[in-house]
Structures
1.
Amino acid sequence: MSNDIELDQCLRAVSNPVRREILSLLKHPNENFVPNDHLPNEEGICVASIILRMKLAQSTISKHLAILHGAKLLASKSVGQWTYFKRNEQAIRQFALLLKQEL
Amino acid sequence: MSNDIELDQCLRAVSNPVRREILSLLKHPNENFVPNDHLPNEEGICVASIILRMKLAQSTISKHLAILHGAKLLASKSVGQWTYFKRNEQAIRQFALLLKQEL
DNA sequence: TCGCCATATCGCGATCTAACGATTTATAGG
DNA sequence: CCTATAAATCGTTAGATCGCGATATGGCGA
């Protein structure tokens, strides 16, 4: 099913420290990001805000987000010209469980 | 502490499918490997037996084992000219827990 | 000591990854 | 329309990873 988690894809996503940092920051959006006019933080954080917290180029962060999204660990929502990302808690839990089984 | 698990090292070790396969095979040594004159299977499986079950060159498997060992997910014991590897269950549990926290 | 066997290590090419700046795409607002 | 802004995509470069065969190391038995 396309709703399912790919263990391999998740592991490759999560084996990079920058991507783990992004996942970690998004765990507490209100503490880690300034509030936003367009959306409440809980609904997602826009790419620009994430870039502000990291020391890497826009294109680099965009790529990292795409990989996390591809692994379904992040969900995205487009509002106008912004893209908001938030953690997909269900997928993350599913991944942790799957890994525990495989290990 | 040198007894501790490095999350990053574990994740890189485990993000490779060959290494996951090795960990998986070692989960049930008696089912996956023929018994050995030198050591009971539970005590560890020698490199040659592992190579027999995988389709990769000796040097390649040796490297994979070294990486798993470096991450402390495998323990090794030398007996004469053989090296026996077995899962380090405690480290594996610690790793799974650590990842769950970080995620 | 010599040669054999198990494993580790070396050196190499092929492929993958991460980073960057530049460019493209899409939306918003004047 | 035209311009500005947000984000994605492209092209390149440097470094990591994976696989292999060849070679080194180290223990065993004759």
2.
Amino acid sequence: MTKKNNTAPHHHGNLREALINAGLELLETGGTQALTLRKCAALAGVSHAAPANHFNGLISLKVAIMARGHFMFTEAMQQANAQAETSPWNQLNATCEAYITFARTHKTLFHLMFQSGCEELEGADKQSMSENQQACEASYGTLQQVCLPFEHTGNNALNTETMVWSLVHGYAMLFADKDCAMQDVPEFSEILPRLKLK
Amino acid sequence: MTKKNNTAPHHHGNLREALINAGLELLETGGTQALTLRKCAALAGVSHAAPANHFNGLISLKVAIMARGHFMFTEAMQQANAQAETSPWNQLNATCEAYITFARTHKTLFHLMFQSGCEELEGADKQSMSENQQACEASYGTLQQVCLPFEHTGNNALNTETMVWSLVHGYAMLFADKDCAMQDVPEFSEILPRLKLK
DNA sequence: AAGTAATATTGACAGTGTCAATATAAGCAT
DNA sequence: ATGCTTATATTGACACTGTCAATATTACTT
């Protein structure tokens, strides 16, 4: 039963990844409505019921896509870190900017990644859930690391993380599409310095 | 065509409100999945296609429900204001607590109210859209007012509003269900004081 | 080479949003 | 009051969706 690593094992190749890719594409082009098991199957060139062999229903595919989203998210933030100057504040600022840029660039995916409450995800299979949990921890870990230098007297790390995460996440959620904003919104770089960090 | 104000005008009475109520009930009991035109119609005791006379499709019903949600939201924040001490900081704190409590109490509705990007809402009818816009402005206005006293040298009001809104909204979105949190989350009252407000 | 497990297909079913055609009832003019 | 017009509700249909059971096909193991 153990798959050989490199070669395509079965009928399709590896359908699981293909379906996730198809789902990502549908999500970005057609919005949440377009993310459909049957459309994914069609895009991957298989029959409408083929996904059932890899995902325990639509919810599992969604969770798997969320996992992929969090990996992309982590990569984006880490790349921003790598390119930013190494001072703690520059690292934090670059990470937040990447956070917001990701939300703007992958609006639908970002919403999917964060919209779902816990109980909505029940029923997803173990593999998807595990992948998603790992990916979530990776993305949160990135933010956590850039917050760490700001741990000081009276400000424990958890408190600072939570504050920064809430601020950047709220900003990203509320103002990801500028068209929706009721008025002109100040840049995040004007807001972040108003946290008491040190 | 003008309706008399008090008496039920037609077959059902006023089906529009009944459908919104049904939608709210379905949302709270059965989650996002349960919000369905046909289920709303059944709950209101009409045929499956009756809603078409009041809503331009499912999206319009959703927008109307979002509007109702924002009205409830505004009421909750204003009630908290009324009960809190009148100092600016107490007012702000109470409003934020009410914000978070609403997100926790009406989790699914809260997500619906804020999840949808602009373009997903396209196609909703004018009445629903107008109601929702008014309700959004009302709820934002409440937050805006409690931020106003903190306008000071160098901090314009818009900047402060945006900061506070982002922080409380991010916190509410991320930690509305504690079960999902990766770790224990500090109370919001420990975070709010770390904004540079004055 | 044969057998077994994994994978994909086909067909079916209930549920969904939406549309067109029809029926019913309310409000208004005469 | 009577008839007309408009608003509202019903019925039936259609395509699309997720999901399941039965079957077929392929890959891996022995």
3.
Amino acid sequence: MLATMNTCTITKLARAFGLSRSTLLYYDRIGLLPPSGRTAAGYRCYTQRDRQRLERICHFRQAGLTLADIRTLLSSSGKPNAKLLERRFRELGGQLLELRSQQRLLASMLKGVAAGKCPPAVDRVMWVKMLRAAGMDDRAMGRWHTEFERRAPDAHQEFLVSLGIPESEIQRIRKSSAEGAW
Amino acid sequence: MLATMNTCTITKLARAFGLSRSTLLYYDRIGLLPPSGRTAAGYRCYTQRDRQRLERICHFRQAGLTLADIRTLLSSSGKPNAKLLERRFRELGGQLLELRSQQRLLASMLKGVAAGKCPPAVDRVMWVKMLRAAGMDDRAMGRWHTEFERRAPDAHQEFLVSLGIPESEIQRIRKSSAEGAW
DNA sequence: ATTGACCTGTCTATTACTTCACAGTTTAGG
DNA sequence: CCTAAACTGTGAAGTAATAGACAGGTCAAT
């Protein structure tokens, strides 16, 4: 008899929050989320309070804070400590820029592959498929062209040509991209 | 006498590529970038070829490939292996989405802080400052509003109100955001 | 009671580094 | 020539956030 109606075991808690058992074990080990009790058999017993704490933890994790930061936030509870948030926000901005540059870089690499010796049939259709697979919708794809046009117009032109897109459509795309009118 | 004009020491190489000495030591240890030679004293001697290899490594790292993948790419040189790139591209798309959601979340948290008890004077000016500090330019800020409006119109409204922006301007901003006309 | 599925705890491995400690080497200045 | 700073090497240990292996515990159905 474990669940006294209000407690739950580690795997159940993990599933409820979309985490892995290992993660909760880890959180226990570092003292971030020790279960309120144990059963006779030594099983961890998580209470409602534990669940609430975990919810806050997940919330902060979602926002990308480190466990150390979260510990600080939870212990010095009350004070929102906007400094931490602001710092993280700044970091996020950098990360976004970095990711976008990665994407551009990868794009050019794939372009190189497509244009180079080993042409794995990366034509327009294939590209659109890949971009969709990467989670892009039409709007995002428009933004992608806009970014490409803004940062590297020449490469953008080259890229479109490499996809075998007719000149007339290239003009249209680049014009739209330049205006950001998506 | 170390530098025979074409070789350089570990720290110099590290500085040239914006890496730490430890990183290069690590790359040597795992056999990813062993220096071409050593001085009599045993100091690592990096040649031009080593630098080129490191440049490729950095290039791939920039794109987010793991060192294992990079090793594969560099050893099976020639074959572009578009599979790896494509896979990474997919991952990137996911990461970008994730980051954007983080940003939104953080935004709402900061909003809460601003609206809540501990008001660290997060008004409009402060926000713009923060967003700029996060690397946003006007265009990016427009996109940010657009995203906000698209995904959470109510929260967007609330947010703008919380910044003390007059109703008339809020209308204007939200209308523009909805159209994505930035 | 027993089987089999699923659960538990602990311990170890992973990635890409970083930090540390300690001893030898090079270099610039006096 | 000497000394102090700055560099070098090795090796060990630490980091985040899990993932996986493993032996054993628990539970529902038979």
